[in-house]
Design goal:
A hairpin with a 2-residue loop joins strand 1 and strand 2 (67-70). By secondary structure, the protein is mainly alpha-helical. It has a two-stranded antiparallel ribbon with strand order 1-2. It is built from 6 helices and 2 strands, in the order H-E-E-H-H-H-H-H. Among the domains are: 60-117, Helicase, Ruva Protein, domain 3 (Orthogonal Bundle); 120-190, no CATH class. Helix 5 (143-159) packs across helix 6 (169-190). It is elongated.
């Protein structure tokens, strides 16, 4: 009896399946069919063109701790870093943007640490040395001027009957050059300086 019920139910389901398939096979003009005959199964998807932002040079593009980095500075650093090949920070992928901000931020981080860890005397020393180096780069002293100073020193030594031997020019040329620069910097520093000795 169970077997006959099973056969009866399977024939009912088979009839339902047959009717369903027959209905699908009937063509009805009211149901639109999609034409798939022109599909290229080997085609590659078209790349989506990336839209590059065009932000103002004053736009903050990132921060390193509390230091804000503006687009103008990021663009300038990027141009310098890539020797002019890439000049728009916004055209870079986010991963590279983060790496660039990290590089730009290093001087800020060093400054923060220096302000925390250096004493006031050390800070003054760093500022003095930096200013002196900056001034020294501005001063141009030609070899002919160094040679002239060397010859004057040599003549003074001869006139004073000095027993010390005078080193050759090439041996002391650099030292004389540095001394001449220092002398010019000292002259600039002392210009218009008022010094009073307290009693």
């Amino acid at each position: 009896m169970g077997l006959s019920l099973g056969l009866l139910s399977s024939s009912v389901s088979a009839d339902a399946l047959k009717n369903s398939l027959t209905n699908i096979m009937k063509t009805d003009d009211s149901v639109p069919m999609v034409d798939l005959s022109n599909i290229n199964l080997n085609a590659k998807p078209k790349p989506v063109k990336r839209v590059i932002k065009n932000r103002s040079p004053k736009t903050v593009v990132g921060t390193v701790n509390v230091h804000k980095i503006i687009k103008k500075d990021a663009d300038a650093y990027l141009a310098k870093r890539t020797k002019g090949k890439v000049t728009n920070y916004d055209a870079m992928p986010n991963k590279q943007k983060k790496m660039l901000l990290q590089e730009i931020g290093l001087p800020y981080l060093a400054y923060d640490m220096a302000m925390k860890e250096l004493t006031n005397l050390e800070k003054e020393s760093v500022l003095n040395r930096t200013w002196m180096q900056k001034e020294a780069r501005k001063i141009e002293i030609k070899d002919i001027d160094v040679k002239r100073v060397y010859n004057q020193m040599k003549m003074q030594a001869i006139d004073a009957n000095s027993t010390k031997s005078i080193p050759p020019f090439e041996a002391i040329k650099e030292r004389l050059h540095v001394q001449m620069i220092e002398k010019q910097i000292m002259s600039k520093l002392m210009q218009d300086v008022q010094i009073k000795v307290a009693e």
